[in-house]
Each structure stands twice: as C-alpha cells, then as structure tokens.
Amino acid sequence: MLSNRWLLLPICTLLSLLTACSSLPPTLATDNDALITDYHQWLTQSSDTVTEVRLGGVIAQVTNLVDRTRIEVVNLPIDKAGKPLLTDEPQGRFIGYIDGFVDPIAYGQGRLVTFIGTTAQPETGTVGEFEYTFPVMKVRGSHLWRVEERVVIDDITPYVFPCRSFYCRHVEDFPRSGRVIQEVK
After folding, report:
1. Buried b (16+ CB within 10 A) or exposed e, 149-181
2. Is 94 within 8 Å of 113 (Cβ atoms)?
3. How far, in Å, are 16, 112, 147, 180, 183 from residue 22 at the CA level?
4. 0.90 exceeded by the pTM?
5. Residues ≥6 apart with Cβ < 8 Å to 113
6. Mind listing the UniProt keywords for this protein, alphabetically (predicted)?
7. What's the rounded Cα separation, in Å, for the pair 46 and 75?
8. What are the pLDDT digits (tens) for 145-171?
9. pLDDT digit string, tens, across residues 69-92
10. Distance (Å, rounded) from C-alpha 76 to C-alpha 58?
C-alpha cells in the first residue's frame, strides 16, 4: 500500500504542473457558455446583440480619452488559456475600450494582450489611408502577455573525443546548429 502512495505523488505533481501551464488568467474568466472566442464568428453576430467576447492579439495603438482608453488590436487567434497564437496569421482588427486611464507604456504598441468584454457598436476609422470598420468591445478584463525566447541547440557532436598524443578536440571545434523558440507567457 505504501508503494502506491509513492507512485501517486509524482503523477499528481505532474498533472498539477500541466494544468497550471495552460490555465486561464482570472481576469479573463467567465461562466458564460455562449462566449465567443473566434474573430470571424464575432463579426457575423448582429451589432445590436450584446454578446460576451474574449479575443486577443497585438496592440497597434493606444489613445487615452477623457474618461476611457481606446486600444486598437490586431487580432490573433487565442488558445484555451487565452494566449495569442504567434504562429497564426492576423484575422483583422478590433477596438477595445477600457474605463479610465491605461498607461500607454504598459499597454504599448507591439505588446500581446487578451481582452474579455461585451460587444458595442462598431466604429469606422482608418488603417493608414484605408477606411476600416472596427468591431468594438467594452472591456471588463484584460491580460498582458510577454514573449520569452529560448535557444535550442541541436547538438549532434559526440561528447567523448578520441585523443591522439596530447591533443584532444573540443566541442567548440565542431559546427553546431540551433533555433530560437518564442513562447507566450
């Protein structure tokens, strides 16, 4: 019986680590079963219908107004944890309005963000000189993400080197290759 308990401990630890890595931040949580997380599905909804939406992407512009902040976001699909997917293509743009002041340094251009809120009336604006109709969200919760990079080295060189006389070759003598992996945290 004692051995079964010792086996259960590593399994529970592994499961808790896996679920912690993919959990939704509390600021993006909802009980709504009809929550929309797809940009194109959101566009097909009637603008008169108030629906709850969770979308994310890259911040394109931040404008502080008198009583609220307007944030233009280039939409990227999000995963179940609300993280924008860097490998997917942008799907369009939307506007999120946050009540009060938001520091444009914290919510700076190029940062990854996910919003949850309700649908508001679309507005017309421009992207460059192109006229664009932006879907609009009244934001009730947000989460800023960071992109972490790590280098993975594809090491195919042997770790034991034959030595001839007094000379042994070092790892630095062999070519190595690697890649940079970006992860949203």
Report:
1. eeeeeeeeeeeeeeeeeeeeeeeeeeeeeeeee
2. no
3. 10, 17, 15, 22, 12
4. no
5. 56, 57, 58, 59, 71, 73, 84, 107, 142, 143, 144, 145
6. Lipoprotein, Signal
7. 19
8. 998 888 877 765 555 555 655 555 555
9. 999 999 999 999 999 999 999 999
10. 7
Summarised one tens digit per residue, pLDDT across range 22-50 is: 699 999 999 999 999 999 999 998 767 78
Rounded Cα distance between 172 and 48, Å, is 65
The secondary structure element, H or E, covering residue 41 is helix 39-44
The residue to which tokens 């009809």 are assigned = 34
Residues in the chain: 185
